[in-house]
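Sequence, please.
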């Protein structure tokens, strides 16, 4: 999730408490025992954004993300049942206890530890009745009978209230309006619930914008394109992959096809893990004379096969011991992040880049000193993008007449794998442009901020005659 404020006809970043401009849609809720004499009560502490995301490893049941998909969906809905298998927190049915109405009191101006009173969850209800209610999120408490239930839209209200508070604190003015992006498959009931959440947060909704259309507006493609153009948008979010095909005709656009895959995660951690495993294997294999090329092939072919077959020789046992050494793994992970930053720097000679990763007393008193080339790093990262091209192909197969008539491809998203995805897509679309022309890949906008840039265009077009102060608006998507 990216969030900015529009003020004086200009975009301004809203920074979180740690100075970060990109605030992920994460909420962490903790029901702490009360310090009063009554030990059967809780006080609630709430964290937002990156602070909440940092709790995912240590407190997974308290850390909520991707809840927007659950808004107003029945518990028995296939989407809800799929999310139950994927997320670490508990999703239950509202049939257990009807939730309280969502009001502005649900979103107190944050200090940020409001004590929220929520319905208790009774575990003795018949499980068969769960499917009759709506999906709700259960936050554990020290007393089982005080487990708290939250409606998904209530979490949205809490987060938007937090963002409004940050924007007003940093801008020194009050904000009244908001523009919000929504997924392509949302329902009228979900939009109504979102309006309730925005109102509870103290804002009025100026416009709901389809998520896949915002990047087109950011690049002003509907303004500078003459005639008919076919544009593909690829959104690599850490929580999903979305591919859409839009036809534009002199400013009028029509969505031809769209496909969202929520089972695909592009947060970059899978790529970092693969690089880490490659360097560990290279470190252990040096004495055995295994070549770097052969080892890279082995890593890409999921070299854990030997462990699955029970072939635990001494090297494998040492390897397992190393992966259980959290200090060593953290040191190597930090070096990989540094190498990634170097490889992502603009350079005309990327292919010649080489990073030497050195860690003293890395494992069993031995130093680690390994070279990582750009091509090795790129191959490892791209191997985690296996779902990208099949998803693009599936969208094109649904409209075969558009297979070789794409004018422009926009690649956006907060995923660190956007540069890798762009390279793959450029190779895929080479020679497949409309009328034999090259497919255009626009640049000039930070891919992670394309969504809010598009929302800013929406505000500008909706309020051309407004006073700049009246046009001040919180952008949330």
């Amino acid at each position: 999730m990216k969030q900015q404020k529009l003020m004086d006809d200009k975009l301004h970043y809203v920074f979180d408490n740690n100075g970060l401009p990109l605030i992920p849609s994460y909420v962490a809720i903790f029901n702490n025992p009360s310090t009063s004499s009554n030990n059967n009560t809780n006080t609630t502490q709430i964290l937002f954004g990156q602070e909440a995301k940092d709790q995912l490893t240590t407190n997974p049941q308290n850390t909520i993300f991707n809840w927007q998909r659950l808004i107003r969906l029945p518990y028995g809905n296939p989407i809800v049942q799929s999310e139950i298998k994927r997320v670490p927190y508990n999703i239950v049915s509202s049939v257990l206890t009807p939730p309280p109405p969502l009001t502005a009191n649900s979103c107190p101006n944050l200090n940020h530890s409001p004590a929220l009173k929520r319905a208790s969850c009774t575990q003795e209800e018949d499980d068969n009745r769960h499917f009759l209610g709506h999906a709700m999120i259960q936050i554990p408490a020290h007393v089982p009978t005080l487990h708290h239930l939250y409606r998904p839209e209530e979490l949205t209200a809490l987060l938007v209230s937090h963002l409004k508070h940050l924007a007003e604190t940093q801008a020194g003015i009050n904000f009244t309006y908001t523009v919000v992006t929504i997924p392509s498959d949302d329902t009228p009931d979900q939009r109504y619930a979102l309006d309730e959440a925005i109102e509870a947060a103290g804002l009025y909704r100026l416009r709901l914008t389809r998520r896949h259309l915002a990047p087109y507006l950011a690049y002003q493609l509907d303004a500078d394109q003459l005639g008919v153009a076919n544009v593909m948008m690829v959104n690599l979010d850490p929580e999903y992959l979305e591919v859409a095909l839009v036809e534009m005709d002199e400013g009028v656009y029509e969505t031809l096809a769209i496909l969202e895959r929520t089972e695909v995660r592009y947060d970059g951690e899978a790529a970092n893990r693969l690089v880490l495993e490659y360097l560990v294997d290279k470190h252990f294999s040096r004495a055995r004379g295994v070549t770097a090329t052969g080892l890279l092939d082995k890593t890409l072919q999921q070299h854990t096969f030997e462990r699955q077959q029970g072939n635990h020789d001494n090297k494998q046992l040492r390897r397992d011991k190393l992966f259980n050494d959290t200090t060593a793994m953290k040191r190597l992970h930090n070096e990989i992040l540094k190498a990634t930053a170097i490889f992502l720097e603009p350079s005309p000679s990327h292919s010649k880049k080489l990073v030497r990763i050195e860690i003293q007393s890395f494992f069993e008193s031995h130093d680690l000193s390994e070279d990582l080339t750009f091509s090795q790093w790129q191959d490892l990262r791209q191997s985690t993008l296996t779902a990208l091209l099949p998803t693009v192909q599936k969208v094109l197969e649904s409209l075969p007449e558009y297979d070789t008539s794409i004018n422009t491809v926009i690649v956006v998203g907060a995923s660190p794998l956007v540069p890798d995805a762009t390279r793959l897509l450029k190779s895929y679309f080479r020679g497949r442009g409309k009328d034999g022309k090259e497919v255009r890949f626009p640049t000039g906008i930070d891919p992670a901020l394309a969504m809010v840039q598009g929302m800013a265009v929406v505000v500008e077009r909706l309020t051309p005659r407004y006073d700049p102060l009246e046009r001040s608006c919180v952008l949330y998507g």
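The chain is about 35% helix and 25% strand.
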